[in-house]
């Protein structure tokens, strides 16, 4: 039997790509931040974007800043991005290499994703994904953290 962490997750469990989806403002980043604060072995890979850097943002830490829309689209055409979308007039995408680098460190990689949207794993290069769907109000859709047994998630839903 494999030893488990206090959260019940086996210590030798392979890292995952965790996709958290929901409408803007629902708390995707807050859930990820809470899990990181609680010491869970996850990382949020830097995304690529066409927008200008904001004060304090660092290339390769917060985002990879494309030189132009055409530069970004060249990365799309080359298959460099796991997924991409236009949000408020800017293009955003998740570089495959950033996710692979996170997984190589034995840390799970989180991808916060605006609804609608999902990871394009049709090429089979990222077949592991755990998705949680978010909904507002009195929907019969499961809780954003349904099925997760870790203490960060169980605390957030109680």
Along the chain, the helix and strand elements come as EHEEEHEEHEEH
Global shape: globular
Q: What is the number of domains?
A: 1
Stated plainly, the CATH topology is called Rossmann fold
Q: List low-confidence stretches.
A: 117-158
- Summed over residues and divided by their number, the pLDDT gives a mean of 74
CATH class: Alpha Beta
Rg, Cα atoms, Å? 16 Å
Strand order of the largest sheet: 2-7-1-8
The CATH architecture can be named as 3-Layer(aba) Sandwich
Major β-sheet annotation: 4 strands, parallel
How far apart are the first and last residues' alpha carbons, in Å?
30 Å
> Total strand count, please?
8
Helix content: 10-25%
Task: Describe this protein with a few key phrases.
single chain; 158 residues; alpha/beta; Rossmann fold; 4-stranded parallel beta sheet; 4-stranded mixed beta sheet; 4 helices; 8 strands; 22% helix; disordered C terminus
Summarize the helices and strands and which ones pair or pack.
Layout: E1 17-22, H1 28-37, E2 42-43, E3 47-49, E4 63-65, H2 69-77, E5 81-87, E6 90-95, H3 96-104, E7 108-114, E8 130-133, H4 151-157
Parallel strand pairs: 1-7, 1-8, 2-7, 3-4
Antiparallel strand pairs: 3-6, 5-6
Describe the structure.
The chain is an alpha/beta fold and 158 residues long. It has a single domain (17-157), classed as P-loop containing nucleotide triphosphate hydrolases (Rossmann fold, 3-Layer(aba) Sandwich), CATH 3.40.50. Helices cover 22% and strands 24% of the residues. The chain contains four helices and eight strands. The chain has helices at residues 28-37, 69-77, 96-104, 151-157, and strands at residues 17-22, 42-43, 47-49, 63-65, 81-87, 90-95, 108-114, 130-133. Strands 2-7-1-8 form a four-stranded parallel sheet. Strand 5 (81-87) and strand 6 (90-95) form a beta hairpin. The radius of gyration is 16 Å and the shape is globular.
């Amino acid at each position: 039997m494999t030893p488990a962490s206090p959260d019940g997750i086996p210590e030798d469990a392979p890292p995952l790509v965790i996709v958290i989806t929901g409408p803007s403002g629902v708390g995707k980043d807050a859930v990820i931040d809470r899990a990181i604060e609680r010491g869970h072995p996850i990382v949020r890979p830097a995304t690529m974007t066409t927008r200008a850097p904001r004060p304090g943002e660092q290339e390769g830490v917060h985002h990879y800043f494309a030189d132009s829309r055409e530069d970004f689209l060249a990365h799309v055409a080359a298959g460099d991005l796991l997924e991409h979308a236009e949000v408020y007039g800017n293009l955003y995408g998740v570089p495959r290499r950033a996710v692979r680098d996170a997984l190589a460190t034995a840390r799970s990689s989180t991808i916060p994703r605006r609804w609608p949207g999902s990871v394009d794993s049709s090429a089979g290069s990222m077949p592991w994904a755990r998705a949680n769907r978010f909904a507002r109000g009195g929907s019969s859709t499961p809780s954003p953290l349904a099925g997760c047994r870790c203490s960060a998630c169980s605390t957030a839903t109680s």
